[in-house]
Amino acid sequence: MKCTVLFASPRGEASNTLAVTRPVTDALTQAGWEVERFSLYDMDIQPCRACRGCQSDWEHPACVLRDDMQPIFESVLSADLLLLASPIYSWYCTAPLKAALDRMVYAMNKYYGDQGRGPSLWRGRAVAAVTTCGYRPERGADLWEEGLQRYCKHSQLRWLGMLSARPPRLQRAVHGRGEGRAGPCVCRRTPRGDGGESCMTSLFVVRSAARRSRAMSAPTAAPRAQLRHRPRGVHPPPPANRKHSKAPGDDKAMAAARSAFLGKGYYAPLRDAICELGVSLTGDRPAVLDSGCGEGYYTAGLYQALLDAGKSPVMAGIDISKFILRLAAKREKRVEFAVASSYHLPVADASIDLLLNCFSPLALDEFRRVLRPGGAFLYVVPSAMHLWEMKQVLYEKPYPNEVKQTPYEGLPLRHDPPCRADDPP
């Protein structure tokens, strides 16, 4: 599999756009993809002259201009994914990328010649975008996104989505405020002990359906998560065809009730046990995913425990409820959250060192896919007397839960802490 990246920031290696793009390309490389990047500001890309000289050849781009576009044509035609990376200037991409897109829409689409409508040479290829902008992405990058959607429809390409980040220093320049207005990005600035900031790489990727050899190759394949940035610290929900209700998971009232209950500390012993195990099962720089993280009670506790142990974790949580994830994002701002299903994790293959699943659906195939070799799966299930008092109220004949050890293929048991009847789980 191959990804062609058209990178169009004048700031080059020091750009915010490249900082946001790198985690995406690194994840693709880790999944076995070939990534070829073109830095358009270092190339001679002339604007299209609308001469239609390319339209007479229906088998090749055949652009008559002699500049640096030819290797781009060749790379795009051999790629499975075209990734467009540009800052937003005046509500659109930068000039070199616009010139390249204009050249490609003519040279790749043989629609405009005197002999009638011809083929699209790049039909079916996937396209995604990564952007940075000074305004809120939904007001700064929306026109660029709409333009790309129309571009892809016209060219018979598959639009996967846009990942848009709002760098903190651009917020200060535009609004005169600090980074508190920002939602999480693919690459986020996090405080260091010396008072400075470091760059935290996201665990989320453009599309984690990279199931080894089939990523983005099937014509009907869809992205694992829509990628346009949303405010309030939560990445967007899955596509509508993966949701079984308009607002799946806990609603606002349920999320508030759950958070209030856990805030009273009834489950603190369980949280502390999870933290102790999490610290013992991870190295110095663990990648940690909490699948079905809810309001982030265990997520935040584990993250802080890893920090207290002198480690540098990169942590993320997913849940199907956008309402409960807003509480999670407020609880722990250094952890990234996404609305997603456990059965369609927006995470790259073999990228997770510790996967926590606490009272949540068991998606074994996805968990095996995302865990690194030697990674740990921390699975929390109800014990015999879990919610016993509630059962006594609701049922005429309450019954204890069955407690048993279940072997899971590919996930050998390392540690099975004892459960007591008076423990919360």
Description of the molecule:
The longest helix has 15 residues, at 16-30. This protein has a six-stranded parallel beta sheet with strand order 8-11-10-9-12-13. The protein is 29% helix and 18% strand. The protein is an alpha/beta fold. Helix 8 crosses helix 9 (297-308). It is elongated. It starts with a strand and ends in a 31-residue tail after the last helix. Strand 9, helix 9 and strand 10 (314-319) form a beta-alpha-beta unit.
Tags for this model:
29% helix; elongated; 13 strands; alpha/beta; single chain; five-stranded parallel sheet; disordered C terminus; 425 residues; six-stranded parallel sheet
Produce the secondary structure layout.
Elements: E1 2-7, H1 16-30, E2 34-39, H2 69-77, E3 81-87, H3 95-107, E4 126-132, H4 137-140, H5 142-155, E5 158-165, H6 168-175, E6 187-191, E7 197-201, E8 234-235, H7 252-262, H8 268-280, E9 287-291, H9 297-308, E10 314-319, H10 322-331, E11 336-339, E12 352-358, H11 364-370, E13 371-380, H12 388-394
Parallel strand pairs: 1-2, 1-3, 3-4, 4-5, 8-11, 9-10, 9-12, 10-11, 12-13
Antiparallel strand pairs: 6-7
Helix pairs in contact: 8-9
Brief summary:
The chain has 12 helices and 13 strands.
Q: Approximately how much beta-strand content do the residues carry?
A: 15-25%
Helix coverage percent of residues?
Answer: 25-40%
Question: What is the N-to-C succession of helices and strands?
Answer: EHEHEHEHHEHEEEHHEHEHEEHEH
| Residue windows where pLDDT falls under 50 for at least 5 positions | 169-201, 206-241, 420-425
Number of strands: 13
Strand order of the largest sheet: 8-11-10-9-12-13
The radius of gyration is: 24 Å
Largest sheet: 6 strands, parallel
Mean residue pLDDT: 79
Number of helices: 12
Structural class by helix and strand composition: alpha/beta
Shape: elongated
User: For the terminal residues, how far apart are their CA atoms?
Assistant: 44 Å
